[in-house]
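Researcher: Let's do a round of design. I'm pasting the C-alpha cells now; please hold your answer until I've finished.
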C-alpha cells in the first residue's frame, strides 16, 4: 500500500459519526468526541497501533491493578496509600483502552476480522482481575471474585440480546462505567484512610454495594430481554 492509498487519519476522525447499525451497537460515550481523545486515537492510528493491541493492553493494566491491590493489603501507611492510588490509576487506564480500541477500530478504520473477540474477551478478564484484586485488599477474595462473576453475566445478557437481533442493552444501574467509577472512588478513599481495618472495611462495603448494583443490572437486563423475546413470539 502506498502513501497515496492511505487515508489521512485526521480526515477519518473529523468526519461525523454515521447513524448506522455499527454505531447503534456501541456503548454511547461522549468522550469519543473529546478533542484530546480524538487526537490520541489519531496518533495511535498514525503509529500503526492496532485496536486489538489496545484491547490486550487493558488486561495488562487490570493485572497491574490486581497486583497493586494485593500489595497494598500488606503495606504500611505510605506504601498502602501509594499502591491504592496506583490501583485507581490502572482502573482508569483500563477504561481508556476500552475507549481507544473502539475509536481506533471504527473511527480510525482499522478494524480486523478478529476484532469482535478482542473487544469482548479482554474486558471480561479485566473485570475479574480488578474485582479479585479489590477482594484481596479487603481480605475477602471470594467476594471480589463473586462481583467479577456477576459482571460477566451483565455482559453475557447484553451479547445474548444482540445475538437474538435486539439492540445491545448497556443500561445500569451498575454497567461497566459505573462499576469502574465506584471501584476507583473506593480505592482513592481507602488510600487516605488508616492502614488495614478502615481501608479494608471500606472496600468490603464498596464491593457489596457494587455487587448489589450488578444484581439489579442483571435483573433489569433479564426482564427486558425476556419481554423482547416474548413480544417477538
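Researcher: That's everything. Go ahead.
Model: Designed sequence:
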Amino acid at each position: 500500500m502506498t502513501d497515496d492509498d492511505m487515508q489521512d487519519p485526521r480526515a477519518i476522525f473529523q468526519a461525523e459519526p454515521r447513524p448506522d447499525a455499527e454505531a447503534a451497537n456501541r456503548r454511547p460515550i461522549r468522550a469519543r468526541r473529546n478533542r484530546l481523545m480524538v487526537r490520541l486515537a489519531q496518533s495511535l492510528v498514525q503509529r500503526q497501533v492496532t485496536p486489538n493491541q489496545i484491547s490486550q493492553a487493558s488486561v495488562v493494566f487490570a493485572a497491574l491493578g490486581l497486583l497493586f491491590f494485593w500489595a497494598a493489603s500488606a503495606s504500611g501507611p505510605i506504601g498502602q496509600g501509594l499502591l491504592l492510588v496506583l490501583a485507581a490509576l490502572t482502573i482508569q487506564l483500563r477504561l481508556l483502552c476500552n475507549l481507544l480500541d473502539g475509536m481506533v477500530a471504527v473511527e480510525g478504520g482499522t478494524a480486523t476480522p478478529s476484532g469482535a473477540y478482542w473487544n469482548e474477551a479482554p474486558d471480561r478478564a479485566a473485570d475479574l482481575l480488578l474485582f479479585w484484586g479489590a477482594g484481596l485488599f479487603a481480605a475477602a477474595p471470594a467476594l471480589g471474585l463473586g462481583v467479577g462473576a456477576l459482571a460477566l453475566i451483565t455482559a453475557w445478557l447484553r451479547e445474548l440480546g444482540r445475538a437474538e437481533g435486539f439492540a445491545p442493552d448497556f443500561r445500569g444501574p451498575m454497567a461497566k462505567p459505573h462499576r469502574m467509577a465506584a471501584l476507583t472512588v473506593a480505592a482513592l478513599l481507602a488510600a487516605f484512610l488508616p492502614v488495614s481495618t478502615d481501608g479494608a472495611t471500606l472496600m468490603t462495603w464498596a464491593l457489596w454495594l457494587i455487587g448489589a448494583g450488578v444484581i439489579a443490572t442483571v435483573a433489569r437486563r433479564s426482564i427486558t430481554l425476556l419481554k423482547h423475546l416474548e413480544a417477538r413470539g
